[in-house]
Amino acid sequence: MKSFHAAAGYSHSWVPAQRGSTFRSAIAHGANAIAAHVTAAILLARLWRQRARDRALLARFDGRMLRDIGLTPADVMREINRPFWRE
């Protein structure tokens, strides 16, 4: 089947995508790549949210609890003042 570009001098013909075609493979690859990026973004957001929760919880620990886990108040201040996106 000739493409609509045949009149413009293009020599390529256009055939609708068929099962197993490279076009569909490229589309599938693109969709998989997008899905992978979306999944990675969701996982990163979950990690950041968990860090923020953990640091908020750590801020509520009293002196006895800190001694039990081997942290000083200075360690806690350093940790809770760290941005959520930093490990």
Beta-strand residue fraction:
under 5%
Question: What form results from the Cα inertia axes?
Answer: rod-shaped
Task: Indicate the multimeric state.
Answer: single chain
Q: What is the helix fraction of residues, given as a range?
A: 55-70%
Provide the number of structural domains. 1
Most strands sheet? none
The secondary-structure class comes to mainly alpha
Number of strands: 0
Terminus-to-terminus distance: 58 Å
Number of helices: 3
Radius of gyration: 27 Å
- The parts where pLDDT drops under 50 for at least 5 residues are 1-5
Instruction: Please state the average pLDDT score.
Output: 83
Tell me the series of helices and strands, N- to C-terminal: HHH
Written description of the protein model:
The chain is mostly helical. The chain has one domain (20-80). Helix content is 61%, strand content 0%. It is built from three helices and no strands. It has helices spanning 22-59, 63-69, 73-80. Residues 1-5 have low confidence and may be disordered.
Key words describing this protein structure:
mainly alpha, disordered N terminus, rod-shaped
What's the short story on this structure?
This protein is mainly α.
Write the layout of secondary structure elements.
Elements: H1 22-59, H2 63-69, H3 73-80
